[in-house]
Amino acid sequence: KAGVTQTPRYLIKTRGQQVTLSCSPISGHRSVSWYQQTPGQGLQFLFEYFSETQRNKGNFPGRFSGRQFSNSRSEMNVSTLELGDSALYLCASATGGLSYEQYFGPGTRLTVT
Amino acid sequence: DQQVKQNSPSLSVQEGRISILNCDYTNSMFDYFLWYKKYPAEGPTFLISISSIKDKNEDGRFTVFLNKSAKHLSLHIVPSQPGDSAVYFCAAARDNYGQNFVFGPGTRLSVLP
Questions:
Q1: Residue B41 has what pLDDT?
Q2: What are the pLDDT digits (tens) for B88-109?
Q3: How far apart are CA B30 and CA B91, in angstroms?
Q4: Do B45 and A4 make contact, defined as CB atoms within 8 angstroms?
Q5: DSSP state letter for B18
Q6: Cβ contacts of B43 on chain A, cutoff 8 Å
Q7: Which residue among A39, A54, B38, B98 is least crowded, i.e. fewest CB within 10 A of its CB?
Q8: Beta-strand relationship, A10-13 and A108-112
């Protein structure tokens, strides 16, 4: 069974631009969560999508948004990039049912200059 | 305010001995706990989970213990192997709140040959 894939793996953007990251979950998984990892703040929950609906949201500004498609693939968008948005963005896939076990992709390393 | 704490940033253990990684949480509403290990440049890998209705869960060399009254959990690795050298994160979530996990800052485990 293929794991969670994320594209692109690395990205360099300029302050003020916007960026879209993509995540394909494990086949059969309906839940996709997004996390931001930085050295100072650790792993922080952004939001979770389940069956194309946002089910949970963390404490991030509205510049961070996401969506999920009918095939469970998910995209995350960050608008008006700031230097502080430089981080590793991880997505995690889960069945979305009674099991809370989630499986992470390799992440997208975003650098904002 | 850190809801999930891992007070030891690093731990060194001799190969073959037991590794004990600790995690404390402050939110008594947390019902479900996960442990992950992370190698550099990879996403976290799910290791083992435990729900609040149990006090122990075992999977091969990995055992997680939960002490709800103390709001403390620990991960035991026996015997420790050099390949176990990684950063270990504990994560907690409230039941029925989907995949909104709060992660600890991690403990770097080094298993010495």
A1: 77
A2: 999 998 866 666 789 999 999 9
A3: 10
A4: no
A5: -
A6: 4, 90, 92, 104-107
A7: A39
A8: parallel
